[in-house]
Amino acid sequence: MVQLPTDILREKLEDVELPEGEPDLLKDDSMLxxxxxxxxxxxxxAQKMVRKSIEWRRTYKPYAIDCQWCHQKPxxxxxxxxxxxEAGRPVLYSSFTQAATSRNTAAEAISHLTYVxxxxxxxxxxxxxxxxxxxxxxGMFLFFPCIWKVEKFAPSLLGGMQCYLGVxxxxxxxxxxxxxxxxxxxxxxxxxx
Length: 193
Prior knowledge:
CATH class of the largest domain: Alpha Beta
Largest sheet: 5 strands, mixed
Number of strands: 5
Protein name: CRAL_TRIO_N domain-containing protein
InterPro entries: CRAL-TRIO_dom, CRAL-TRIO_dom_sf, CRAL/TRIO_N_dom, CRAL/TRIO_N_dom_sf, PI_Transfer_CRAL-TRIO
Order of helices and strands: HHHHEEHHEHEHE
Number of helices: 8
Strand content: 5-15%
CATH architecture of the largest domain: 3-Layer(aba) Sandwich
Pfam families: CRAL_TRIO
GO molecular function: phosphatidylinositol transfer activity
Helix content: 40-55%
Number of domains: 2
Organism: Schistocephalus solidus (Tapeworm)
Strand order of the largest sheet: 1-2-3-4-5
């Protein structure tokens, strides 16, 4: 009998201590498929990626994060979920010129990013396992004050969340090439406009 790659991956992860509050994490076939897809079907590489992700979830507890600024000042942040595309995928939009006027710390920005991404995953209808990410770089220049925020979170987002990334769209600006240079372009299904 032939085993599915998800079953093989699940077996290899039997020894993993799951995060508190997420006892069924490895029962989710669509999650395991996303990791396999992100690693071109390589079970060993997907296993490493899942282990790192679970360890991060155990220590950071992203499911418990609630962004106080989103409740107190809606629209304050430059990254937000703006709706769904025709395929039912959550659409996340960020305008970096708006981020330049924001004064939150890197820790607050990372917390907000985690909050938005966790909620995007929770909002996915059955059968949907990816999102659309739109980075609007128009009007952006390398000297804008938010460049350090982007450099802190972009490698993590673009390197660790690609299992959810359906489409990555950038609206070109001077900043466009800098953003892509701090990520691994081989993992991004990118459309530039």
